[in-house]
Amino acid sequence: MGKSSATKDAEALVNSLRSAYTATPTNLKIIDVYVLFAIFTAVIQVYMAIVGSFPFNSFLSGVLSCIGTAVLAVCLRIQVNKENKEFKDLPPERAYADFVLCNLVLHLVIMNFLG
Amino acid sequence: MAASSPSSDTVVVTPSSLRQAFGNVFSLFILILIGVLAFSIRLFSVIKYESVIHEFDPYFNYRVTQFLTKNGIYDFWNWFDDRTWYPLGRVIGGTVYPGLTLTAGTLWWILNSLNIPLSVETVCVFTAPTFSAFAAWATYLLTKEVKGAGAGLTAAALLALVPSYISRSVAGSYDNEAVAIFALIFTFYLYIKTLNTGSLFYATLNALSYFYMVCSWGGYTFIINLIPMHALLCIVTGRYSPRLYIAYAPLVILGTLLAALVPVVGFNAVMTSEHFASFLVFLILNVVGLVYYIKGMLTPKMFKVAVTLVVSAGLIVCCALVAVLIALVASSPTKGWSGRSLSLLDPTYASKYIPIIASVSEHQPPTWPSYFMDINVLAFLVPAGIIACFLPLTDASSFVILYLVTSVYFSGVMVRLMLVLAPAACIMSGIALSSAFGVFTRSIKFASIGKEVDARDTGNGVTQNDVVKPDRNEEPPKEKASRKKKKEKENVAKAPIATKKNERRLLMLPMETSVVAILLLILLGAFYVVHCVWAAAEAYSAPSIVLTSHSHDGLHVFDDFREAYAWLSHNTDVDDKVASWWDYGYQTTAMANRTVIVDNNTWNNTHIATVGTAMSSPEKAAWEIFNSLDVKYVLVVFGGLVGYPSDDINKFLWMVRIGGGVFPHIKEPDYLRDGQYRIDNMATPTMLNCLMYKLSYYRFVETDGKGFDRVRRTEIGKKHFKLTHFEEVFTTHHWMVRIYKLKPPKNRMRGKTKKSKSKPTSKRSATRKKNPWQ
């Protein structure tokens, strides 16, 4: 009895999530795909690290670069999202320019640290 | 200040915009004055003594900067120093915080390429005052983000003068904190700016500024723990916003990467407990962000279902992860923290386990008078500032409150960390003073206009006046006060009636009270300034390398240290090794240019304990130890003739303790008579025979016939003795530094020893036949 209601609730939850998510505009979905790809790459690297993590600085820079791009993409998504009232007077071009700048700095550091 | 008539194609000049423009220009002018003030108050030691580098640690930084300017950055980055910690050497590239030396080196290089030929020493001496001016400007920016421009100017003026910061940044004090405090305040400013605006650009700048801080000082762990604490506080008090995510998450990732770039930190950036807080809060922040995002997408009922599902599954995963983390951390004996951080968290740790950290005088807890000496009036303005921060409580003001509370705790553990408290105290006091001035001047303005009913808040009008007035009232000198009061009254009379934007009843006091209160506040500021100038001139401007004393026949200058180092550099070979207590290591390598055994870096406790044991042993044993280290000269500092209290005999018990910590045959009670440390005729024989006693008091009785030690205030115990294994080569003018040379071992054995060795002659001839070189 409890189990079936739990599964029913889970199905209803998944359905409502899916319906709400399809309502988001396309550019935000692109950013979400990018974020998921970056996290997926980070997970692969962690698996490779468990197998053998020498040299350590390369592993560190690889993982942190994936997580870093994911975080920056999330920040971009926050700033571009039209539902966010705090950012409504921030032009999306400015948000994108900031995103590019931050990524430049991140990748410069990573290139240096990669060894 | 009436509005000028606008022409058709220019911008309409309204009274408020004109006032704002005037306010901006005035603020700029005041900021320049504050910078000049901060720079010039630190110049007392240059005026009173000379442009020389002070103390001990700055000499090492100066030597490193000299190397950098002479050999370039690649050699500096890979430098292995073999003239210190003989025979171990020291990897300078990997153990020094490069921020300060790179900053001074860059300044020197820029000035020289502009054909301004300043020497490296001048640049080093004046780096600290320059960066203190920058720090005052950074404080203005930070406080402006928290409370407004008026509070910012007040805080900047307070920071320019605060004695605690002056003590570590006088001209000549070329140490890490000179640059690091500027980096600290600037990083905090950028964090608050990102938090207020939500712009990724400032987040990038914040990470870069944090990188500069990591390069400069070991105290960067304070930033990387305070900012996560504040983020957690915001989440817990329900103030999560997307701006918090933008402010925090890129900082952690970029900051960790940048911190790992600095060789001193290296992989410690991800492996030590000092950084774990930032990672934990990063995870929590991501989870919270996700939760808010999903909450925004679902209906409340669906959200409850999601929560129950996720919580039950996620809790198990969380517990597993936390268990793994705890196991990892608990497996290391210090729980992953470094020794210095542990001694901050547990104040009794250092005295139990690491006597070297406990012996540094800067690491002792401060006394109450030192609070009043170092931050003076601010000590009781700070609580008023805390209250002002709560009305209203924003993210920025909660950050400043957290910063203040943590720095108060740490300053209570170590005197040296009063320096971290100083900016927080200045910010809080600036906010308090500015709010107080706001209330009083508003009362005067509305009372003089005579309309109590109109005492309602406006959006722009009142704040404009408040911005301009506190600036003027904070200009220190007393004689200008009366003139300013008149100017302010005129301004009040001419000020237009404030437009009613927001209707809010504000606090108002009777006019006479306000006038008296403003006068008293100005008087308070005047006392603060007088104290700061006195502290800077008298207490904190002494370069410990040159001492002065006033007596009835004028000023005596004791330049014995430099005399001794100059003698060493002129009268010994370049490769000779000099042994002394670790206090003088940096100065010896920088000024005398000789190899030393131990120096102020104190990274190898056993090596220091070896030197300490040698100083505590009788002559022959000490000679054996020093000979095994290839030492040629021993340097001892002795203050008994002139009354210099920081000499080696006063530090001797620390040598015994540190030596005894590693070599158990040195026991501290052997050197004490009834638990008292004495050097007179009641001292123990171990004390009277140890090397330090002999080297300090050799021939001391010839000075006044009785051997009266002016520091210990007794006559010495053993007066007439000869040295068998050392010979005196140099004693400075006031007997403050004494240099001895190790006597070479005897060529042949004479007398008794020869007879006792004549017995196993048959054995001798047998062994001699086996000699492969014959």
Task: Walk me through the structure.
The complex is a heterodimer of chains A (115) and B (774). With 115 residues, chain A is mainly α. Chain A contains four helices and no strands. Chain A is flat. The model of chain A has no long low-confidence stretch (mean pLDDT 81). Chain B has a five-stranded mixed β-sheet, sandwiched between helices. A two-stranded antiparallel ribbon of chain B has the order 1-2. In chain B, strand 3 and strand 4 form a beta hairpin. Classes of the chains: A mainly alpha (115), B mainly alpha (774). Chains A and B meet through helix 1, helix 3 and helix 4 of A and helix 11, helix 13, helix 15 and helix 16 of B.
How do you describe this structure in short?
The complex is a heterodimer of chains A (115) and B (774). Chain A contains 4 helices and no strands. Chain A is mainly alpha-helical.
Biggest interchain interface, per-side counts: A-B, 39 and 34 residues
User: Proportion of β residues of chain B?
Assistant: 5-15%
The poorly predicted ranges of chain B are 1-7, 453-504
In angstroms, what separates the terminal alpha carbons of chain A? 59 Å
Largest sheet of chain A: none
- In angstroms, what separates the terminal alpha carbons of chain B? 107 Å
